[in-house]
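User: I'm putting together a teaching handout on how multi-component assemblies are represented. Below are the sequence lines for each component of a complex, exactly as they appear in our records. Could you produce the 3D structure of the whole assembly as structure tokens, so the students can see both representations side by side? Please keep the chain order the same as the input.
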Amino acid sequence: MRVRVLIFLLMLPLGAAAQGFAGLGTDADGFAVPERGQALAFPRDHGAHPAYRIEWWYVTATLTGADGRDYGIQWTLFRSALAPYELDGWQSPQLWMGHAALTTPDRHFVAERLARGGIGQAGVSADPFEAWIDDWRMAGPGFNMLDLQARGAEFAYDLSLTAQGPLVQHGDRGYSVKSQDGQASYYYSQPNFAVTGTLTLPTGPVALTGNAWLDREWSSQPLSADQNGWDWFSLSFDDGTRLMAFRLRGGRGDFTSGTWIGADGSATPLPDGLIEVVPLDLTGVAGREVPTRWRLTLPDKALSVEIEALNPQAWMATSFPYWEGPVRVTGSHDGKGYLEMTGYD
Amino acid sequence: MRRAAIACLWSHWARHPLQLLTLLAGLALATGLWSAVQAINAEARSSYAEASAQLGTGQFDELRAASGPIPLARYVALRRAGWQLAAVLEGRMPLPGGSVEVMGVDLLAYPALPAVEETSDINGITPADALLAPGLLIARPETARRLRAQVGLPPVTRSQNLPAGVVLTDIGTAEILLNRSAEVSRLLILPDQPAGLAPLADLAPDLMVVPAEGRSELARLTDSFHLNLTAFGLLSFTVGLFIVHGMVGLSFEQRRGMIRTLRALGLPLRDLTWLMLGELLLFALIGGTVGLALGYVVAAALLPDVAATLRGLYGAPVDGDLALQPSWVALGLMMAVAGVFAASAQALWRLSRVPILQVQGQYAWSAQGMPVLAQAGIGALMIGAGFLALAVFDGLVAGFVMLGGLLMGAALLLPPLLTLALRIGSGFSRGPLGAWVWADMRAQLPGLSLALMALLLALAANIGVGTMVSSFRLTFTGWLDQRLASELYVTARDDAQGTEIARWLHSRADAVLPIRSTEVQISDQTVFLYGIVDHPTYRDNWPLIAATPQVWDMVAEGRGALINEQMARRMDLWPGDTVTLLPGWSLPVVGVYSDYGNPTGQAMTALPALLQRVPDLPNTRFGIRVDPAEAGDLRSELADTFALPPQALVPQAAIKASSLAIFEKTFVVTGALNVLTLGVAGFAILTSLLTLWAHRLPQLAPVWALGVRRDTLARLEVLRSVALAVMTAILALPLGLVLAWALLAIINVEAFGWRLPMHLFPLQWLILLLLAVVTAGLAALLPARRMHHLPPSDLLQVFANAR
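Assistant: Of course. Below is the structure of the complete assembly, with chains in the same order as your input.
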């Protein structure tokens, strides 16, 4: 029932015509637009940018439990602005949406939260850093040491994140181009958090350790009108190198981009066309076919790997449904990572 | 044979079309009145259910503050503790022609509402429209029209999926419209909560959880009102059945010869019974269908007033439009069929006993079923049982059981009492003609008794209800004068303006009485707690119905509380008891005041004492005491100085007028049913007299033969009928007064929560008596006319027939 209202609330303002996934391809009337060469500044840019239409704080973690099993968690806070400013109280045009998920090899738990800015129910402050919606929270003295909490009807997690390397700015010093037309977003990551903590399942608590990846992105029109979905990979290889790669699917063909991250945290942007991703297997998920096994090749780095979902049924049945879950990587490089796929209707 | 029998049975109706018409009319009246009431009730109930579904109320538990609104910060704190809640801010917004209820919901959290979905799906409204200033109002087309007529309101979109008089909007828009920022009226507890939450009792001990099922205050309040209507519908139905009974009895009686012949010709009794049953069923369906149509018309005519009453009295959202519901049709027809068979049971039973070869007896049909004494005993027993039910059980239903027992018992007692009266009366008769008239009345009584019972019930109901309504009107107008003592009532835009207005008025008015209240929860019920200043206006005028000595001193010092009658009765709190107004603040009840027309509980104490506990009490409403001659000037001066809209300045007279209008509408239905019931009773007398007519000739012919002229006989015919009606009316008076007492002291207390003093209105009784005389006279007129025009040959023939 509520989902329809949410679509009413979040989908329609961004254009009645189904342009792109979640309306991300609309015009940016009145909203600020990312500009190339604008240097990011921290800790300021860890906080919210109300003048931009959309923004997110996106954490995924691949984890191993004390029981030896693999787990994955997602913690995301989205900001969606109806107008490019912030006001106090209920008058605020800033809407917030939280998604939390916990994936095991055979279960996938999802929870969603919605809130309005202005009243204190959700928001982000840069210094000291805190991002929250209801009782879900990511906070710490700085961006290097974060506590991460969320819970749903059947699951909860409480994790400590400690950065192991520097922030990584994607594209041109954080200016990440998203289409042939030049649509772009500001995009940086902390791809290397060491994680400890516990998660609570219906069967009881599990202690675990692992690795987390935090993405920060904000923009006002990151997609072209004809782009209707993406496949996004964040992979951590056993040799300490990392890869962020995405493919944006559009009417005029695919647009691929990514960042190669060295073991020391150094970033190499990968412009359109260098990365090739090919779906290998489709799985029936929530009434549609979603590719859950992929081949990804990056000849520049002699990379050719097969990527397979830990749990192919990691469907996010939220207001905007999408697929997001942990993956295993095998081939020229072994490792773990996260896969997000949108626009498979 | 069967076909011949059918033709035979039908030929009776073909020869007596008036009889058929009367039978069907009686049935239609009975079904019609009953169905009208049912249609009104069903419509009102479905309106409540629809409103609840349209607003999502009544499905979820809620959090409410012990007093007043919940600060927004509390909501956010509970959210940040993990609780999934939806905030609602409600309040009334004044508009010309009556205020509307603004329901502001957090559109992001509130469960999906049909109106919102309709708005987005059909009208293509975007959330930016709804969530960004100036916002968006959603209302029914009628309400939307009124909103659009106002300048300065946000854009309005129409939706059929909302109750009348409700404006749905985002909470951000509502806080501006209602001028109540950073507060929330109530919090819905949403169904999906995360695991491991801290209990609400720990997080928010000052907020109370009101369970969804415990919140049906509207249903509880209006149930009584609907039960009231149902009782009247049932009364009309019963009275209508008297007509059916009379007509069926008459037709069976007149067909005795035919029945005997059919039986003698070899038609088995079983076949005959089935045929007769089929005939009755057909009549029931025809009469029932006509009745349903009639009921629909009556209901449609009465519904707007009922809707106005329910809205005015309870704030219940009821439409003035009537929708036809299939269950209503089925139920109405069922009632008609059941009624016909109940009314014909006696006749059918007699049919099975018709001796084939025996000659018709003189009192064959109207023979007494029950010895007079036994009937009197049963009647007394029923009255006793009714009062016993009231003594043992509480509540509205017990009240109606008592009334039912009283009315039925009294009806049963009527023939024995009339017999007694006639016996005594015959002692005073002079001359043979007088003796004959008295004796003839006694002989007529068994056949007329059912019709007279109907008249008794109708008259008693009229006296009872009339006394109640008039007592209420008298009390109510007096009470309004006391209660609305201030000459002018003003509502400021906000607290700041309120303070300014009070300061401005200080030198211009005799007194400025702040009207400041907060909503509190006492025993799970919403009560409005008022803080008042000490002023002679209260001391001199306030309508106390129970009080301790020095009541006003106690209130002025904040050492006692006054409560309204509704609250006193519902919670059984009276002077001497203690009431907990807020957690940790209890005061002795020092007085109870009458508070008609208000469905909710109310309490009052000293303003300073209340402000100590609830510092942020709104300060926007005032009663102004001023020389009545200057009230008009002061009003326009106030309006000019503070740019107040007309609805913010209400003179005393306007409030009185609107209160009285609501009151009048409350009893329109009762009055209408009352008149119809009396009409039905008159009709019953007519049918009974027509029934008896067949037997009258053998009794009248000898008197005529002795030299009494036909016109004298016709006059005596009318006189007898009127005399019986007068006797019935006299007996109806005490019954009606007991009924009035029961309505005032029992039914009203249960239905509305207040008890009214009973006043007597002898002039009304006189009018009713006249009405009864006219009714009975008119009913006797038709048989009397027949008598008058009867050819002497017919009278002579009586002697020719072998008897």
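A couple of points students might notice: Residues 59-215 of chain B form one domain. The two ends of chain B are 31 Å apart (CA to CA).
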